[in-house]
Amino acid sequence: MPYLLSVPSSEKFIFPFNRSPASAEAELHYADEKPPAATGQDPTREVLSSDGPLEVGVAAPEDLLTVSPYTDRAHLLDLTALNQAQVLFAKALTILAPVTASYATAPYISSFNWDAVFRWLADAVKANAFVWEEQFFYVVIFRSQVPPSTDRSHLGALDKKAHAEAMETNGLLKYWFGTPDEDGRNLATCIWRRRADAQAGSSGDGHKAAMRATINMYTEWKIERLKLVVGGNVERWEIVPWTG
Length: 244
Prior knowledge:
The chain is an alpha+beta fold. The protein has helices at residues 23-30, 36-39, 84-92, 108-111, 114-127, 153-167, 195-201, 205-217, and strands at 13-16, 64-65, 77-78, 135-145, 172-177, 185-192, 220-230, 236-241. Strands 1-8-7-4-6-5 form a six-stranded antiparallel sheet, with helices on both faces. A two-stranded antiparallel sheet has the order 2-3. Helix 3 (84-92) crosses helix 5 and helix 6 (153-167) packs across helix 7. The radius of gyration is 18 Å and the shape is globular. The two termini are 22 Å apart.
C-alpha cells in the first residue's frame, strides 16, 4: 500500500463547495445517501458481527467504523482516537465512490463524488451543531499497472496485512482501491489524518513486503501526495500538491 512514497505532482485543483467537474454525477450518488439530519440516524454506522470477545481496552463495536474494503476488526477505525472533526470527516468518506469507470487514468478530482462527500459532511456538521474550522488532511494516490496475467492473490494478501498495520496508527480515515481495467491499470487512494500517521503506518514489515512486491510485479506505478483542505463551515474545499 502507498503510505509513504511520493513523486512530485503538478496537478492543482481548487473548487468552491459544489463546483467540481463531477458535480452532476456526484448529485446522482448523493441522491441515494441520506444525511443524518434527514434520517435521524447515522447511515455510516457499521454493526460489527461477533467474532469473539473484545479484549480489555479495545473500543466497543459502536466506536468502530469500516473505512476500507476490509471488515475484520483489525481493519476498522477506532473513532475514540479521533477528535470530532476527524470523526465526522471519516464518516463522510464512507460514501466516497467513483463516478467514472476510467478512474485508473482520469484526473483524481473528477473520478470521485467529492461534492456528495462534502455535502454530507456539511449536513453532519450542522446536525451536530459543530463549529468546523479549516482542516487539512494528507492524501496519497497510487496509480499502477499489473500485467493482466498476474496472480493478484499474492498482492491482495500483502495489501491486507499492510492495511492492518496502518490501522494501528488510528489515522487512516479512508482506503479505497478499484478493479484493474483491461490493461491492468488501477487506482488506490488513502486519506490520512496527518502525514505523520502515514509515515508511522508505512514502517511495518507488511508495508515493506508490499513495496518489494510493487517493484517486482508491477510494470508501472506512480505515487502522488496531495493536501486536502476543507474550509471553515465546510463552505469550500481544495486538493493541492503536498509541499514540505
